[in-house]
Design goal:
alpha+beta; SH3 type barrels
Length: 227
């Protein structure tokens, strides 16, 4: 005879675990999306909402599409998928390096031409392209899963998490802008530059491409340029 009480309890435990798993995933990606946001905050609700949107676009949607194409994906050699994964990693890593160097110094650190920078950051870093990359990442994981090679599957899964985390940061960077501003401080010359972070301290990259840290309590007012 079926014990419906135990069955219900087991179902409730599974649902609780699923909710916990997804909540943790949303919070995880949300924090990385907010990493480059000029506004320093620790709002878990905001993190979760951002993580939910990211997961819908870069995890759930590609997963559904790739799952329905799994027969075609499995027919492709695993080596090809791993090479694709490597190429995506290089592109994403270059994108992050360029963006982080810009946030730190106000200029790119790579000896790249404007068109090379535009291709890596603006074109290959576009949200639609990142979603395609996500689909290719899941294709690699699916291929390794169905190949029954546990070690390769685990490797590609961890690798995929690394790339998705980096993509979350880029997705966050794509959604923000660093405003030009003039900051007025008591008894000091006004500082002009781009605000890259604001919280207890204001981080500004001035026209000489130097990073300046300003205590917000000493600021009289800020004039921001409206584009």
């Amino acid at each position: 005879m079926i014990d419906y009480t135990q069955l219900l309890q087991l179902t409730e435990v599974k649902i609780s675990l699923i909710i916990l798993l997804f909540s943790s995933m949303f919070l995880y990606f949300g924090k990385f999306i907010s990493l480059a946001n000029p506004n320093e905050s620790d709002d878990k609700l905001t993190y979760s909402i951002l993580g939910l949107i990211f997961s819908a676009l870069f995890i759930f949607l590609p997963f559904i599409v790739i799952y329905n194409l799994k027969d075609a994906i499995i027919s492709v050699n695993n080596v090809i998928w791993m090479v694709i994964l490597f190429i995506i990693t290089v592109i994403i890593s270059l994108n992050l390096e360029i963006n982080f160097h810009y946030m730190k110094y106000g200029k790119t650190g790579k000896a790249l031409t404007k068109i090379q920078e535009k291709i890596i950051v603006n074109w290959l870093g576009h949200t639609y392209v990142l979603i395609i990359f996500s689909g290719l990442i899941f294709s690699s994981v699916f291929s390794n899963y169905y190949s029954n090679d546990i070690l390769l599957f685990l490797l590609s899964s961890v690798w995929a998490l690394f790339i998705l985390t980096a993509m979350a940061i880029i997705y966050g960077i794509n959604g923000i802008s660093y405003p030009d501003a003039t900051i007025y401080i008591a008894n000091q010359t006004p500082i002009e530059g781009k605000i890259v972070k604001y919280g207890k301290f204001i981080y500004v990259i001035n026209k000489e491409e130097k990073k300046i840290l300003i205590n917000k309590d000493k600021i009289e007012h800020i004039e921001m340029k409206i584009e």
